[in-house]
Amino acid sequence: MAKPINPEVARATFPVWLSRTMAFNNPQEKVVKKYPKFTKAEKVKYTKKIEQYLSEMEDKPKLFGDTDSGRAVAIKLDGMVRYVWRADVLTEAEYNEVKKRHRVGVDMLRQKLNRPVDKEL
Hints:
Layout: H1 7-11, E1 14-18, E2 22-26, E3 31-35, E4 40-43, H2 48-59, E5 72-77, E6 80-85, E7 89-90, H3 92-110
Antiparallel strand pairs: 1-4, 1-7, 2-3, 4-5, 5-6
């Protein structure tokens, strides 16, 4: 049996970002659509039906491809509710931290070198 969902989390809606590139079935277009890393989505309010599905995901992880990814989460992406694992999404604080680390690396690449860059060395 899965742990009960915190009522505050169940009622909340907030922005989340995908932590990796993911592919979802898109029934309107009858194709599988790939969403790149850091695509913005929104955590939805949980209804009883959503809570039951999330609970089923957590109870039967082998059916849903879980690799110890934590809790199941329902998000809205392109107007559709999608079910993912907590490890597949980033909160705003986590997203800002990743972006800050990435920015530091890019800034280091842009820095002017403090040494001569010659072919004679």
